[in-house]
Amino acid sequence: MKNCLVVDDSKVIRKVARHILESLDITVSEACDGREALSQCQSGNHDVVLLDWNMPVMSGMEFLQQLTATHSSRPKVIFCTTENGLGHIKAALDAGADEYVMKPFDRDTLESKLQIVGVL
Ligand SMILES: [Mg+2]
């Protein structure tokens, strides 16, 4: 069974993502900011990270940079953004994100992104 770390400061988004991912037979763990996500990535092995951009304590971008700098084999990263954050997509892909998804996302969209990065 594949597992996904959902990183978002919004409890509602984490809940929606969990619901969708579990319906795709993916095990879910959650982190509410980049720092917590980083420590979870150090102790566990996740297949994919669903990553929010704007979070307190440590942003998605900072998380991505540190993850890439410290992990030679790292999980796939799907970066989540809103329509207002379209300008961040290039920066996120340049920093090592494998794919991106627009919020709010639905099951079909998330499923196709997971297929693109090879998790499904
Ligand atoms: Mg956020």
TrEMBL record:
Keyword hit for Protein biosynthesis: no
GO biological process, one term: phosphorelay signal transduction system
Domain Response regulatory, chain residue ranges per copy: 3-118
Post-translational modification 4-aspartylphosphate, affected residues: D52
Keywords: Phosphoprotein
Xref: InterPro entries: CheY-like_superfamily (IPR011006), Sig_transdc_resp-reg_receiver (IPR001789), ST_Response_Regulator (IPR052048)
Pfam families documented for this protein: Response_reg
SUPFAM superfamilies: CheY-like
PROSITE patterns named in the record: RESPONSE_REGULATORY
UniProt entry tagged with the keyword Oxidoreductase: no
Name of the featured protein: Response regulator
UniProt lineage: Bacteria, Pseudomonadati, Pseudomonadota, Alphaproteobacteria, Sphingomonadales
